[in-house]
Amino acid sequence: MNNVCLIGRLTKDVEVRYTQANNTLVANFTLAVNRSFVKETDEVKADFIPIIAWKATGEFCSKYFKKGQQVGVVGRIQTRNWEDEQGQKHYATEVIAERVYFADSKKDDFASTYGDVFGSSSTNNTGSEFELASDELPF
Predict the structure, then answer these.
(1) Measured distance CA(78)–CA(84) in Å, rounded
(2) Are strands 89-102 and 70-83 parallel, antiparallel or unpaired?
(3) In the beta sheet, which residues pair with residue 90?
(4) Which of 8, 38, 44, 86 is spaced 20 to 30 A from 121 at the CA atom?
(5) What is the pLDDT along the chain (139 residues), one digit of tens a residue?
(6) C-alpha neighbours within 13 Å on the C-beta side of residue 67
(7) Dmax (CA) of the chain
(8) How far is the C-alpha of 59 from the C-alpha of 73, rounded, in Å?
(9) Which of these, 64, 82, 50, 42, lies nearest to 118 by C-alpha position?
(10) What are the domain boundaries of the chain?
(11) How far is residue 55's CA from residue 37's CA, in Å, rounded to a whole number?
(12) Which CATH architecture has domain 4-103?
């Protein structure tokens, strides 16, 4: 089973582009995810994980996620490789986001900055709707 759940902070704003073949939206961002196994005396360490979100999920990310915000991502790990013009092989490991969540601890601070989106609905990239109501949030 290929399933990953992450909570981290965006290192910069979400970047959006469209595929050339069929003009499909794809959003890219990087999550800084703290390591949980750090000793008390050590400085907190983080892994910087590239995230790819397609279609409606990517659109949602680009509209509501901002640099520094803490978010949750559920998805799958994908690896790919390619060869450049000089014949050098390159490898990439990314998380393909299937579901995304707000994970900031203070709803009111986020709502006052970005508007109250907690009662709005969105779609994931399979087209099914989900509701995000403030009384359902775990914080």
Answers:
(1) 20
(2) antiparallel
(3) 82
(4) 8
(5) 999 999 999 999 999 999 999 999 999 999 999 988 767 777 888 999 999 999 999 999 999 999 999 999 999 999 999 999 999 999 999 999 999 999 987 654 555 455 544 443 344 444 434 444 555 555 4
(6) 4
(7) 55
(8) 14
(9) 64
(10) 4-103
(11) 35
(12) Beta Barrel (2.40)
Residue 82 phi/psi, 5° resolution? -155, 165
Q: Is the dihedral of CA 11, 16, 20, 24 positive or negative?
A: positive
Distances (CA, A) of 4 to 22, 49, 93: 28, 12, 13
Which structure tokens are listed for 3? Answer: 């399933």
Measured CA to CA, the distance from residue 9 to residue 70 in angstroms comes to 4
Threshold 0.85, pTM exceeds:
no
How far is residue 25 from each of residues 10, 46, 63, 128, measured CA to CA in Å?
A: 19, 29, 13, 17
* Closest listed residue to residue 55, CA positions, set 96, 93, 102: 96
